[in-house]
Amino acid sequence: MLDNFLQILPEVIFDAAEKLGGRCTGRFYALHALENRVYDIEMEEGPHVVIKFYRPGRWSRATIQAEHDFLKALEASEIPVVCPLTDDKGQTIFEINKVMFTIFPKRPGRLEPELTTEQLTRLGRFMAHTLRSGSDIPGCRENPFFSAIRTFCESGPPPVRRAARTGARRRRRGQRPARPAGPSRRTRARPRR
Question: Sign of torsion, CA 149 139 49 32?
Fold first, then answer.
């Protein structure tokens, strides 16, 4: 089975990326990943996509699906995450040469050199909100990603721990969770005068 993983050649990558329609330009970039193979693929029309090939034998289909369901729940809770793309049947996990893969839209991101106390507090609120959103999804509590978030909330920097504890207390009391602090979003730009 691992032999199939080693045979992920450009033709296989392009066939997988075209699974949901569209055509590749032939240009792709390998992205950093420890266990899986992840590629940024340029499409002829529309934005780039990111395709993730899962190492055979490492994750079960059920574990991957639980992670995708978790991402959908986070998105529904207004947490900014990137959810996998779906086909016309609603599937997010595909297979080529007996290797499972998922296609994501490419989203820009940035890495902050140092987080301020305000940013860490906001991060703690997001993490607490993430735990609340995922706790009702079957199989989510056993997911390594969910466990890592819980560990970070319990042992991360002090502002993260304080914000996460506050969110947990509000949940136990049945109060509405505090919205993560941040810049407000305008629905319409105002014209300049």
Answer: positive
Fold for domain 2-105? Answer: Phosphorylase Kinase; domain 1 (3.30.200)
Query: What residue spans define the domains of the chain?
Result: 2-105, 117-172
Instruction: Give pLDDT tens digits for 95-145.
Output: 998 899 999 999 887 777 788 888 888 888 888 888 777 777 776 667 777
Task: Please give the Cα distance from 72 to 81 (Å, whole number).
Answer: 9
CA 1 to chain centroid, in Å, comes to 26
- Write the single-letter amino acid at 93: I
SS3 for 25-84, per residue? EEEEEEECCCCCEEEEEEECCCCCEEEEECCCCCCCHHHHHHHHHHHHHHHHCCCCCCCC
Looking at the DSSP assignment, which residues form a beta bridge with residue 99?
96
Query: CB–CB of 149/135 below 8 Å?
Result: no
Identify which of 94, 19, 7, 98 has the alpha carbon closest to the alpha carbon of residue 57. Answer: 98
Do 150 and 167 touch, CB atoms closer than 8 A?
Answer: no
Mean pLDDT (whole number) for 5-11: 84
Q: What is the pTM of this model?
A: 0.71
